[in-house]
Amino acid sequence: xxxxxxxxxxxxxxxxxxxxxxxxxxxxxxxxxxxxxxxxxxxxxxxxxxxxxxxxxxxxxxxxxxxxxxxxxxxxxxxxxxxxxxxxxxxxxxxxxxxxxxxxxxxxxxxxxxxxxxxxxxxxxxxxxxxxxxxxxxxxxxxxxxxxxxxxxxxxxxxxxxxxxxxxxxxxxxxxxxxxxxxxxxxxxxxxxxxxxxxxxxxxxxxxxxxxxxxxxxxxxx
Length: 222
Ligand code: ADP
Fold this sequence. Notes:
By secondary structure, this protein is of the alpha/beta class. It is 34% helix and 27% strand.
């Protein structure tokens, strides 16, 4: 379960405090999927970073799996993120010097008690995103859509409870975006993650059962 209660975010500026998010509350359970749209600068990424425990809120509470990540010490927080949260960004953020398989395995390297099945999970995910034959390739040898499919496999290799995507299809052509979106939904259903996707694409947003828009610092249902 993800619970966001009365979340507020302000940034200090020389002209005073700049309010970005005001009193946002949201509860999502395993298997839920929501999209968030909104104009540029409306705070979508900020909200995603707070929910993903990358950025603390100014006020309010975030709990994931009954844990408030912002109460954890730095090392525990890093482990919490590694275990519970997968991220896909607009830019794939793959390591150029590593193979496709090594990229997907990256999150498993820092996990302390990961067991021995990380390789099998990574290979299975790469099969599922249609890249089973490309595991030894470097990212530079892949198309934009293929790189995003690797990023999706990497985000899911730890079987996270929460999958956060910030403009996952923003840099892709229409056909590649469609493939990535379909895989995203398929893997979300299979792993029963909580899925939150920030997007500018009304086509992608329309595929979600629940759609929100950030409007005047508030999360509004559409
Ligand atoms: P979106 O993802 O909807 O485009 P963002 O969450 O990136 O919006 O940004 C929301 C607002 O917060 C923008 O006006 C941005 O300039 C501001 N902002 C983001 N990060 C900071 C920061 N570290 N300090 C001050 N303002 C920031």
